[in-house]
Amino acid sequence: MTATDNSIYISDKAKSKVRQLMQDAGVAEDASYFLRVGVVGGGCSGLSYKLDFDNETKPMDQVFEDNGMKIVTDLKSFLYLVNTELEFSDGLNGKGFYFNNPNASRSCGCGESFAV
Questions:
Q1: CATH code for the domain of 68
Q2: Each residue's pLDDT expressed in tens, for the chain with a length of 116 residues
Q3: What are phi and psi of 22, to 5 degrees?
Q4: Owning domain of residue 29
């Protein structure tokens, strides 16, 4: 992935898993739903990632489209997530979503928390 502008990206594998989870949640057919990503305080490195499905944007939300998927984040989280790519791994070393975040100065062993 080469970041050409300030955005949030999603890999093919992560997109496919998000679509499957949207199907499981019964919201895949509703075009108003999108993937909301965010950053919250907590975790062993100070900040943690948050993923959810949502169908309402808020006034300060930043809206992106990558790989055919609508991704929304709040402005505060975007400052931490600029040019981050959401990935998904189903390998033996760890299963689940993870973030390739060029802004993180360090991350913890679990991969769910980071610091800047």
A1: 2.60.300.12
A2: 444 579 999 999 999 999 999 999 999 999 999 999 999 988 777 888 999 999 999 999 999 999 999 999 999 999 999 999 999 998 777 778 989 999 888 776 655 667 77
A3: -65, -40
A4: 8-115
- Tokens, residue 28: 């895949």
Judge whether 43 lies within some domain: yes
Any domain includes 52: yes
2: in domain? no
How many domains does the chain divide into? 1
Neighbours of 45 (CB within 10 A): 18
